[in-house]
Amino acid sequence: MDYIVKELPITFDIEFTVDFGHALPLCILNSREQFKNWLLQNYMMPVIFYTDIDQFDCLVIDAMQYGFLSKVPPSLMRFSFVGDDIMSNVRDIIGLVKGRIAEGWYCILFLDCYYIQGTVDYQKNHYAHEVLLYGYNDKEQTIRTVIFDNALKPISVPYCDIGLSYREAFRCIKDRSGWDEYMMLLYKPTDEHRKEYPYDIYSVLDKLKYYLDAKMAESDYYSEYLYLKCGKEKCYPGIQMNKAVLEMVRELKDRFMELGAKPEKYDLFRQYHPMHTYSEFHRGLFRRIQYLGSCGGDRLMDPHMADKYNDIVLLCERMRLCYIKINVMKNGKNDKGIIVNLDKMVKYAEEIYNKEPDILYKLIHY
After folding, report:
1. Ramachandran bin of 34, using left for φ above 0, alpha for ψ from -120 to 50, beta for the remaining angles
2. For residue range 252-293, what is the model confidence (pLDDT) as tens digits?
3. Which of 105, 136, 157, 178 is most exposed by smallest CB count within 10 Å?
4. CA 161 to CA 354: how far, in whole Å?
5. What is the Cα–Cα distance from 224 to 222, expressed in whole angstroms?
6. pTM over 0.85
7. How far, in Å, are 202, 226, 325 from residue 106 at the CA level?
8. CA dist 345 to 128, 329, 334, Å?
């Protein structure tokens, strides 16, 4: 008997790794060399909204995203969304997934991760979470799946577990604030882009200026649903996000000190994802500056300042590592170590806030 094995190309060599909205599309796009130029002239406009320690997030506006914040360039991807009202009538989810994958479609499907071994919720919490399905093996009776377990990783999930976790997901998908309308998301790279996507150095320079000017278009404020989360005065677009991070780490330290011996002070440190995305963004921007120089932009900018920007990347990474150390230290209630690392985070945030504008200004006003 001939068993069918099908696996679509993916990669984990991606720049944004903790925000699924960015990460899963990148696993697809980065697996194709012809999309490299598109990727390296986007992902350049971040925004942080900050209303409180528990209301702090870092988004990238010009990124490909899926779901109700969907931004999918039709020249790169074909896509389709199917809600739970239709999906609830599907009796053979394995057959549906295999059929789509066989036709070149990547499937993002909500599953109850209580039944998916390898996820953080396995046998602990009933939680409907999206996973990327990109292959199948009839001999092993498994689906190739991308999950998050402190990092993105590929696993093979038995057909029976996919079926069970799919059926049970309907019980908790309604708690996901509108995600029930996107129970299954399908993506297929377009055939038209077999040639390399064009690269425009002037467009990238304009985006660098836009980032430095820290302006956010009215349309972005609404398309990102930021108006539901905070007023414009609490949105920090472009390079102004450094101000938000500096305010946040200062407030973290002040609140930690004010709470004294109260155990709830250890609950302050729950914003790992935004800190991680903040660091990843700067690393990605440095890569785009380097690529701009290699594509002819070196004649339009100061190459010394381009190299100097790596100092900002290192400061962001040091700050991220301090935050990780704090989350380890809080388990042992190591207050002294936490305060030392908070002091370091404030110092690094001040350096980033003061140095990055000058480096970028000199870079693009060469």
Report:
1. alpha
2. 999 999 999 898 898 888 878 889 999 999 999 999 999 999
3. 178
4. 52
5. 5
6. yes
7. 33, 29, 37
8. 35, 15, 17
pLDDT of residue 142: 96
Helices (runs of H) and strands (runs of E) counted in the chain: 12, 10
Give the other-Cβ count within 10 Å of 17's Cβ: 17
Question: Three-state secondary structure along 152-199?
Answer: EEEEEEEHHHHHHHHHHHCCCHHHCCCHHHHCEEEEEECCCCCCCCCC
Cα–Cα distance for residue pair 310/288, rounded to 1 Å: 12
Q: Which amino acid is at 334?
A: N
Name the DSSP letter for residue 64: -
User: For 327, left (φ over 0), alpha (ψ -120 to 50), or beta?
Assistant: alpha
Within 10 angstroms of residue 186's Cβ, the number of other Cβ atoms is 19
3-state secondary structure of 27: helix
Q: Which residue from 17, 13, 16 is spatially nearest to 32, judged by alpha carbons?
A: 13
Among residues 187, 103, 115, 205, which one has the least CA distance to residue 158? 115
Alpha helix (H) residue ranges in 214-263 = 218-223, 241-258
Distance CA 186, CA 106 (A): 6
